[in-house]
Write a structure and sequence with these properties.
heterodimer, A: alpha/beta, 2 domains, six-stranded mixed beta sheet
Chain lengths: 263, 294
């Protein structure tokens, strides 16, 4: 199978399996993610897409297999450590600090980059203040980039769904991740919001060279923005390749449309 | 009127000591969703350690205090690691039963280690009351209020402004999101218990000095429930305001009503308030209203 981009492999997923009770959610899945790639994971409901993402971000630890980022094994680390190593994510059902403002949510995204201890942050001036100002600037840049200046002081819980999705992307970006995992970034949003989100994803990838792995159901969007597509069905990888290759793959057609399909 | 202010002001000072105990309770509930029925027993244990260090081992106060604070912080950590972490994901009743069990273990082990008879913690505080604007203020209450006040202000600052405090608030808000931004949620749980242990250590010294140290000291924990229900189970300012209200109300009510009924108002009224609060405003003054969409 042809590899689209020939960049070095940044994230190596090797033979990852995870089961819940008797259900094999992910079964010996291997994927090589190239640096700077936009990679989509698609598949019918229950294919194991979110489980695979949860294994990468260490929400679950896989029973077999390894996940290696730039030569470092992430498989057994805690979710917090994985975030510290440069993997940020968003969630299918949005996980934000709902009682806090947009700015505070993004500032929390800077947590792993903050070095001030209790004592130093008590001093208003000096290094503590310099660090604070520095993080503020990063956060304000992201707010500009995502065009959410107007709502920066609003508590996140009061925002409409589409904007919450955008704030969650902002918080993930605030980590300055090497790899960004997006679990249905367009799920439940309207047409206009979908277009905005697609634009932001492409811009992030373009401006910062961030590797992006996303799960998405909207095939139009997937085919438009991804360079590489991985197809899961019933926990197994059934195909991968460029959008065009995947679209023509007989097993993919079978998984989506059933047998005896003619396209 | 001077009599009323006597009762009110001294009540508020006692209330600040309730607030100190309530803070530990709220902190644990907020960060880890554990309803800790052993909070009063932690206070008692703190009082026992203080009394043991000062009375039994004859340590000077300047040495005893850091040892006490250190050992109560350690106790908080150990309880979280050893007893509550294995219970993560169990149902609410099991966790509540564990804390009730812990409460009895604390009482039993304190009595076994240092004896059941009442001990005093001698603090260098004058007994003569101060008179300010015709209000009699007991120096013991004043010192207690100052210590509690300083701790509460320091804690609120820590919670609002420091990196770890903000991480604690974030964890209380959404655990999944907290993990995703790289916050070590397990450490936050342990930290909550450690700070609750610290608050209990101070509470133990102050309450122990006021009413003596024996296993009965754990009963101050019972007053925490009306305080946190009034203030809101998951609200730090609520714990402070609730504690102050309970202190003031019981002091004023005891002053006016006790002479007619022969005592008991102190124990009666806070709970009547609690029951009324639960009927009228179940989330407390400052608590987060949880709206479930069905």
């Amino acid at each position: 199978m042809a590899v689209v981009t020939s960049g070095p492999t940044q994230l190596e997923i090797r033979g990852v399996s995870k089961s819940f009770g008797g259900v094999q959610a992910v079964s010996r899945v291997s994927v090589d993610v190239q640096k700077g790639q936009i990679l989509s994971i698609i598949g019918p409901n229950g294919a194991g897409k979110t489980t695979l993402l949860n294994c990468i971000s260490s929400v679950f630890h896989p029973e077999t297999g390894t996940i290696v980022l730039e030569g470092q094994d992430l498989t057994r680390l805690s979710p917090a450590r994985v975030a510290g190593r440069g993997i940020a994510r968003t969630f299918q059902n949005i996980a934000l600090f709902r009682g806090m403002t947009v700015v505070d949510n993004l500032m929390l995204g800077r947590h792993i980059h903050m070095k001030n201890g209790v004592l130093r942050s008590m001093l208003y001036w000096g290094p503590g203040r310099r660090e604070e100002v520095e993080h503020r600037r990063v956060v304000e840049d992201i707010i500009d980039f995502l065009e959410i200046e107007a709502i920066r002081k609003r508590p996140v819980g009061s925002l409409p769904y589409g904007l919450q999705k955008r704030v969650e992307l902002g918080r993930a970006l605030a980590l300055h991740p090497k790899v960004l995992l997006l679990d249905e970034p367009m799920g439940g949003t309207n047409h206009e919001e979908k277009e905005d989100m697609a634009r932001f994803i492409l811009d992030v990838n373009d401006e910062w060279g961030t590797t992006i792995i996303l799960i998405e159901h909207d095939m139009g969007v997937v085919m438009d923005i991804s360079q590489h597509v991985v197809v899961l069905d019933l926990g197994e990888k059934i195909a991968e390749g460029t959008p065009a290759e995947v679209k023509a793959h007989p097993q993919v057609i079978k998984a989506y449309l059933g047998t005896k399909a003619t396209v | 009127m001077a009599f009323f202010f006597d009762l009110f002001v001294n009540g508020l000072m006692i209330g600040s000591m309730y607030a100190l105990v309530a803070l530990g309770f709220v902190l644990i509930y907020k960060a880890t969703s554990v309803v800790n029925f052993a909070q009063g027993d932690l206070v008692m244990f703190g009082g026992y350690i203080a009394a043991a260090l000062v009375v039994l081992y004859k340590l000077p106060l300047a040495v005893a205090l850091p040892v006490l604070l250190g050992s109560m912080i350690a106790l908080g950590f150990i309880v979280e690691r050893g007893v509550l972490r294995p219970m993560v994901g169990q149902n609410v009743i099991s966790v509540v039963m564990v804390t009730i069990g812990l409460s009895q273990v604390f009482q039993g082990s304190a009595a076994m280690l240092w004896g059941a008879q009442t001990k005093n913690i001698p603090l260098p505080i004058p007994l003569e009351p101060y008179v300010i604007w015709e209000i009699y203020i007991s120096p013991v209450n004043l010192v207690a209020a100052l210590v509690s006040g300083v701790f509460l202000v320091a804690f609120v600052w820590f919670f609002r402004k420091s990196r770890m405090g903000i991480a604690m608030r974030a964890t209380a808000n959404d655990q999944q999101a907290a993990m995703a931004v790289g916050i070590n949620v397990r450490f936050i749980f342990a930290l909550s218990w450690a700070i609750a242990g610290l608050a209990a250590a101070l509470g133990g010294v102050l309450w122990g000095n006021l009413i003596g140290v024996d296993t009965q000291l754990a009963l101050v924990g019972l007053k925490v429930f009306p305080a946190v229900i009034l203030g809101g189970l998951d609200s730090v300012p609520g714990a402070v305001v609730g504690g102050l209200i309970i202190g003031a109300v019981e002091s004023v009510a005891a002053g006016y009503v006790d002479p007619y009924v022969g005592g008991g108002t102190k124990d009666f009224l806070p709970y009547v308030l609690m029951i009324l609060a639960l009927m009228v405003r179940p989330y407390g003054f400052f608590g987060r209203e949880i709206i479930e969409r069905v």
